[in-house]
Amino acid sequence: MARRFRSTVAMAVPREVVFDYLGDPRNRPEWQSSLHSVTVSDPGAEPHLAMSWVETMVIGVHPRMEVVQFQRPVAWAERGSWRGVEMTLGLTFEETAGGCLVVADGAIVGRRLYALPAAVGGALAGLAIGGDLRKAKKLLERRTP
């Protein structure tokens, strides 16, 4: 059974800027606390549908990831897997008067031996992604005039 999570963060930055930053996996180690590094399959390519990469997470796992939705500047989504765990994360970018609202929706599911760790990870994921998005917000709001 999938463990769903959701988080929402308002940012005082134009949604195109937020989309471009959050939608580029190479930026993730800067704002995502669980990541040590990202290795993109085609490092010189601009972010696009079907872009793939491998993450090196702080806890030592290496999920393979892929962009499964790329609709600039409205929606972006990824799918990832590592051993018996599968994860999805979708971001929507709603334009507001002062910038944008980022809504993160996701799910984690684990099979067999990985069911319990995935359930625990899913329970914590909403808090983690919320914290990570707030970190991205601070970074972007400092950089964007």
Summed up:
It contains three helices and seven strands, in the order βααββββββα. By secondary structure, it is an alpha+beta fold. It has a single domain, classed as Alpha-D-Glucose-1,6-Bisphosphate, Chain A, domain 4.
List keywords for this structure.
3 helices, 145 residues
Structural class: alpha+beta
Oligomer: single chain
Could you tell me the mean pLDDT?
91
N-end to C-end Cα span = 44 Å
Spatial order of the strands forming the largest sheet: 1-7-6-5-4-3-2
Unreliable stretches covering 5 or more consecutive residues: none
Helix content: 25-40%
Radius of gyration of CA atoms, rounded to a whole number:
15 Å
CATH classification class: Alpha Beta
Q: What's the architecture, going by CATH?
A: 2-Layer Sandwich
Given the structure, what is the number of helices? 3
Into how many domains do the coordinates divide?
1
Number of strands: 7
Helix-strand blueprint:
Elements: E1 3-11, H1 15-22, H2 28-31, E2 35-40, E3 52-57, E4 64-71, E5 75-82, E6 85-96, E7 99-110, H3 115-143
Antiparallel strand pairs: 1-7, 2-3, 3-4, 4-5, 5-6, 6-7
Structure description:
By secondary structure, the protein is of the alpha+beta class. It has one domain (3-143): 2-Layer Sandwich (Alpha-D-Glucose-1,6-Bisphosphate, Chain A, domain 4). Helices cover 28% and strands 42% of the residues. The chain is built from three helices and seven strands; from the N terminus they run βααββββββα. It has helices at 15-22, 28-31, 115-143; strands at 3-11, 35-40, 52-57, 64-71, 75-82, 85-96, 99-110. A seven-stranded antiparallel sheet has the order 1-7-6-5-4-3-2. Strand 3 (52-57) and strand 4 form a beta hairpin. The longest helix is centred in the C-terminal third of the chain and has 29 residues, at 115-143. It is globular and about 50 Å long. The model has no long low-confidence stretch (mean pLDDT 91).
